[in-house]
C-alpha cells in the first residue's frame, strides 16, 4: 500500500526529489501491471514437426500423448486381476516383515513384483516406493554396487519419468550408469545398454530444458554415443542395427549444437569441465565435445557407407545421400548440397521405376532435419521445464514458399487470428520463418516452389 506524502513539508529544493520518488512509484506500478499481463498471455512452449496438407493427400497428425492413469481401468481387462495380485503381494510382504524384519532378503522378490504390478496399474508413486525398498535391501544383503539392482533401478527410473520427476530421473540415471560401469568396465558389451540409456536420457533432458548447463547434456550424449559405436563395432561389427541408430543419434545431437549455441556458454566453468573430464576418462575418450558440423557430417557419411556395405537398396542409399545433402543445406554449404542432391537423383535414375522413386523422395518439400521427431521446445530457458501433459494444444495450417536454399518465404497463417491467439501466432510465424525445408528438386537441382501448406500442432 502506498503511503501519502505531505508535500507541504518539502522545501523548494526538495521538489526534484519528490518527482523522482513519484516517477519510481509509477514505473514500479507499470512494471507490475506488465508482468501480470505477460503471465496471463498464452505462451508457446512446444512446436511439433508439421505434416503436409496437399490435394489428394490425407493429412493426419498422430494422436497427442495421453497421460494414462489408474482412472483408465476400463481400457485394461487385466486391471482387476492385478489389483488382487497387489493385495496378495502386499500381505506377503507384511508376513515376511513380521518374521524376519524390514530388511529380510526374502522381501526382494516380493517387492520387485509388487513394484512391477503397481507400475502396470499406473500407480507410479507406489511402484517407486516398492522399488526403492528393494534396492536398499539389495545393497544391504548383496553389496553396494551389485549389478542385481540394475533392473530395479531401470524400472524405478521409468516411473520417475512417467510422473515427470526429472530431478530424480536424472539422479538415478547417472547412478545406474555408475553401477554398470563399475561392475563391467567400459569394454564389456554388457555396458552397452547403460551407455545407450544415459545418452538418450541426456538428449531428452536437453529437449526438456532440464539442468543447470544444457551444453553439458549434448557433450555427455556425444561422448556416450561415440563410446557405444566403438564397443558395438568391436563386439558385434558395424552391421549391427545399433550402430546405425547411434549414428543417427549423433547427428541429432550435432544438430542441436548447431541450433542452440547459446546453451554452450559456461561449459568452461570448473565444475562442468571436471564433470566432463571424469566421464571422458571413464569412456577412454580423447575427443573434445560437443561438436556440430563435422560430427554430423561424419555420422551421415557413415550411414551411407553402412547401406553400401550391407547391400542396401538403391533407394536406401539415395535417401542416405539426400540426408547428407540436407545437412549441407542446414549449414549453408549450398554447393555441397546441390552436388549430393544431384548424386541421389542420378542414382535413382538408374532404376526401372526411377521416376516413382524420385517422386517419393523429392516430390514434396520436407521439414529438416528428417531424423528429429521430438517437438521443438521454444521455452528452454524456463526455470522448470513444462511437460506437454500440463499444456493445451491447437492446430494451425501455414502456407509458404520454399526457396532453392530451403528458406521459408511469403509465410501466411491460414487461421483466424484474435486477441487470444495473437501472441501464439506471432511466435509460430517466427519459428516457421527460421526453419529449413528440403526444397523441390527438378532434374537433380533445388528450385523455388510456391503454395506449400503444412499443418502445425503447437502446445501452450
Keywords:
460 residues, 15 helices, 56% helix
Walk me through this protein's architecture.
This protein has 460 residues and is an alpha+beta fold. The chain is 56% helix and 9% strand. It has helices at residues 15-40, 79-100, 107-120, 124-142, 150-162, 166-184, 192-208, 214-236, 241-259, 270-282, 293-309, 314-330, 334-349, 354-362, 422-433, and strands at residues 46-47, 51-52, 366-367, 376-377, 393-402, 408-413, 437-438, 440-442, 445-447, 449-459. Strands 1, 2, 4, 5, 6 and 10 form a six-stranded antiparallel beta sheet that branches. It has a two-stranded antiparallel sheet with strand order 3-7. A two-stranded antiparallel sheet has the order 8-9. α2 packs antiparallel against α3 and α5 (150-162) runs antiparallel to α6 (166-184). The chain is globular and about 80 Å long. 32% of the residues are buried. The model is unreliable at 1-22, 24-28 and 30-40 (pLDDT under 50).
Amino acid at each position: 500500500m502506498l503511503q501519502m506524502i505531505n508535500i507541504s513539508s518539502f522545501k523548494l529544493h526538495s521538489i526534484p526529489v519528490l518527482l523522482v520518488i513519484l516517477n519510481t512509484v509509477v514505473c514500479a506500478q507499470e512494471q507490475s501491471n506488465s508482468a501480470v499481463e505477460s503471465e496471463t498471455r498464452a505462451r508457446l512452449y512446444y512446436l511439433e514437426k508439421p505434416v503436409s496438407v496437399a490435394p489428394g493427400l490425407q493429412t493426419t497428425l498422430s494422436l497427442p500423448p495421453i497421460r494414462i492413469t489408474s482412472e483408465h481401468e476400463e481400457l485394461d481387462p487385466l486391471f482387476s486381476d492385478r489389483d488382487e495380485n497387489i493385495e496378495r503381494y502386499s500381505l506377503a510382504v507384511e508376513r515376511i516383515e513380521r518374521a524376519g524384519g524390514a530388511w529380510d532378503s526374502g522381501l526382494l522378490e516380493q517387492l520387485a513384483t509388487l513394484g512391477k504390478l503397481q507400475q502396470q496399474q499406473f500407480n507410479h508413486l507406489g511402484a517407486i516406493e516398492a522399488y526403492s525398498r528393494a534396492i536398499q535391501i539389495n545393497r544391504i544383503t548383496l553389496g553396494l554396487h551389485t549389478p542385481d539392482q540394475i533392473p530395479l533401478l531401470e524400472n524405478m527410473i521409468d516411473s520417475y519419468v512417467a510422473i515427470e520427476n526429472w530431478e530424480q530421473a536424472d539422479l538415478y540415471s547417472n547412478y545406474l550408469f555408475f553401477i554398470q560401469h563399475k561392475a563391467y568396465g567400459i569394454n564389456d558389451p554388457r555396458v552397452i545398454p547403460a551407455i545407450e540409456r544415459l545418452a538418450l536420457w541426456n538428449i531428452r533432458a536437453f529437449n526438456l530444458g532440464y539442468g543447470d548447463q544444457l551444453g553439458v547434456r549434448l557433450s555427455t550424449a556425444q561422448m556416450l554415443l561415440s563410446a557405444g559405436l566403438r564397443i558395438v563395432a568391436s563386439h558385434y561389427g558395424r552391421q549391427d542395427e545399433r550402430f546405425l541408430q547411434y549414428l543417427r543419434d549423433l547427428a541429432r545431437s550435432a544438430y542441436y549444437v548447431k541450433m542452440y549455441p547459446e546453451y554452450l556458454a559456461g561449459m568452461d566453468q570448473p565444475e562442468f569441465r571436471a564433470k566432463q573430464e571424469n566421464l571422458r576418462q571413464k569412456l577412454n575418450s580423447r575427443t573434445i565435445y560437443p561438436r556440430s558440423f563435422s560430427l554430423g557430417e561424419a555420422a551421415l557419411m557413415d550411414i551411407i557407407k553402412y547401406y553400401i556395405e550391407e547391400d542396401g537398396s538403391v533407394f536406401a542409399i539415395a535417401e542416405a545421400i539426400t540426408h547428407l545433402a540436407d545437412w549441407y543445406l542446414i549449414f549453408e554449404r549450398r554447393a555441397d548440397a546441390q552436388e549430393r542432391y544431384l548424386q541421389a537423383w542420378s542414382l535413382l535414375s538408374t532404376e526401372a521405376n526411377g521416376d516413382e522413386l524420385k517422386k517419393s523422395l523429392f516430390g514434396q518439400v520436407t521439414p529438416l532435419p528428417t531424423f528429429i521427431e521430438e517437438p521443438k521446445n521454444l521455452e528452454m530457458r524456463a526455470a522448470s521445464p513444462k511437460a506437454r501433459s500440463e499444456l493445451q494444444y491447437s492446430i494451425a495450417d501455414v502456407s509458404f514458399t520454399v526457396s532453392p536454399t530451403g528458406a521459408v518465404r511469403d509465410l501466411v497463417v491460414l487461421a483466424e487470428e484474435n486477441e487470444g491467439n495473437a501472441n501464439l501466432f506471432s511466435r509460430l510465424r517466427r519459428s516457421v520463418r527460421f526453419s529449413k525445408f528440403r526444397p523441390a528438386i527438378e532434374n537433380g537441382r533445388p528450385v523455388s516452389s510456391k503454395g506449400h501448406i503444412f499443418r502445425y500442432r503447437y502446445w501452450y
